Amino acid sequence: MIKYRLKCKNCEKSFDSWFSSSKEFEKLKKKNFLNCHFCNSKSIVKTLMAPNIVSSKNCFENKIKIKKNNNIKKKILEFQNFIKNNFENVGDDFTYKARSLHYNNNKKNKKGIYGNASTKQIKELNEEGIETQIFPWIDNKNN
Length: 143
Fold this sequence. Notes:
Blueprint: E1 2-8, E2 14-19, H1 22-30, E3 44-46, H2 56-86, E4 87-91, H3 94-103, E5 112-115, H4 119-127
Parallel strand pairs: 4-5
Antiparallel strand pairs: 1-2, 1-3
């Protein structure tokens, strides 16, 4: 695994991302699969990164980061459980179902919906006045 510091040419923000290899990064970049976490732009470049040197200070800081990440993961999983229990999973039919609910007022659904949609589909829904939210979905694994 390799970690790169990436920068968006559009919004100028930087973020880290992990790749299985440097070749994997290049492959994803070539296929235009990389996008900015902040503005969804595809104009992503690698920046210089200093190597991570292990020290007792770094070890302590890593433990703090791991604890913070575990707390964040716990909150995301709690919210995911709330979504699963209170909304209907429509899977890949999300954009179709969202439009159906929005345009057919007589088809009021007592439960909200959640599912899968591409960034482009979400943008189209928002342009039509259909409010959506993007939420990170993680596997409930303890590794």
